[in-house]
Each structure stands twice: as structure tokens, then as C-alpha cells.
């Protein structure tokens, strides 16, 4: 039996639909069961990123737990560990976890450190695992271009091998349908090329026939420009480190893991834009 978290979000929701269409039974776990799409071959269960009796009960009879990482917060690692504890208490044997590319305890991107801690905990608890490490979604930068007409941050001339969310969903679905083929593996999700943010802006600008620019900030400028959102310090740090990690070259490597799993190349920005996506 498979259980999925994050089923009210984009990735988890897509995985739930994929499994349902394939006729694979799954438990859909959510804080708000009423918000979960009702699908054939699935059951909906109230559960949390904790080790409460309710969560352990929801995981009863589950062999494979797919964890979509919890919402970004200062307590996210503790939430992950509690859910992992609940999985162990319930007898789950395998965890598939959505992590982050090049996750290390000392990563420049602050949220990648959360993922490194979570990966280590899953291993320490003795689970069979698969870590799907996403680089930044290209969708994120396209959304910035669409909303603001610019991509702004202290990324310098650094490059990033962004990946489309749809490709990650395809890989995750394939792993769930054949988990033994990917046990105790790390799958690094990147696009087919590494681009600077200036190159991303230029490609989008040409495709949309409208000005889209990359505004290169200094780190102090980046902190100052984000004051408008009145976010807590840890969150602002994560936003700024999105770009400084790119500047430091930590997110530039291109892998062929998407192609190895899906049997086709990862989607490029140019190909995506050729389809007229706006």
C-alpha cells in the first residue's frame, strides 16, 4: 500500500491522479481531508506531519510513504522527523522523499539544509529510500517574469540547471509505480542545460515579444528590496540565498536522471516556450 502526503498541492495532487488512473491503490493523507480530490482506488485520511495517534493510524498497513516536503517554516525539520517517526511506528518500510538538489548541511540555499537533515534522518532510521532532489523549478522563474516583468536577485552570472515541475511529477510517478528499481538511490532532477538568469530572461522576452529583464542586485540590495513583504528573517534569508546559491555555482550541474527514468530528455526552456506557454 502506498501513502502520499501533500495531496492538496500541485505535485502530490498530480501523483494521486496518476496512481488512480493506473489503478494503483493509495492512501491520501491531508490536514484537511475535505480539500482532497476524491479519486477511484484511493482513500482519504486525516494526518499531519507529526507522530500523533491519528497519523500513525493513517499509516497503518502502508509499505511505501511518499513524503512531499512540508510547507516552509522554522519547524519543518522537526515536522519531517515526527512524520518519519510515525512511519516507523506504523511499520512503513520505504520512504520516497522530495528533497533538494545538492542538499548539504552547509548549503548556501538555507532550505536545502532542511532537506539534508531530513535525508540523514530517513537513513538513520533504517528505511529503504529514494530521494528525488529537485533543482529550482523553471516554473518559478517564469512566474516571476509573468508577474513582475523581471527576475531580480544577487545571482551574478551564476548558472542554474532548472527543471520543470511536470518532469519531476513524471519521475515521481514512475518511481512510485516501480519503487524497487530506484531503492536507496538519489535522483537529481535538472533540466537539460544550465542557464544564467539573464539568459532565462532573454529567452522568455523573445518568446513573449515583451521586455523581460534580469536585474542583478547586491546582497544588501536584495535584503532591502524584500522588506516590502514584512517576512520573518529566516524566510528572507531563504529568498536571498536562492540567488546566492546560484552565484556560488552550487546549482549549475546538469544530470540525465530525468532522461534515465522517463526515457526522454528533460524539457528545455526553449522547447517549453515554443509550445506557446505564457
From TrEMBL:
InterPro entries: NAD(P)-bd_dom_sf, NmrA-like, NmrA-type_oxidoreductase. It comes from the Bacteria. This is NmrA-like domain-containing protein. Residues 2-225 form the NmrA-like domain.
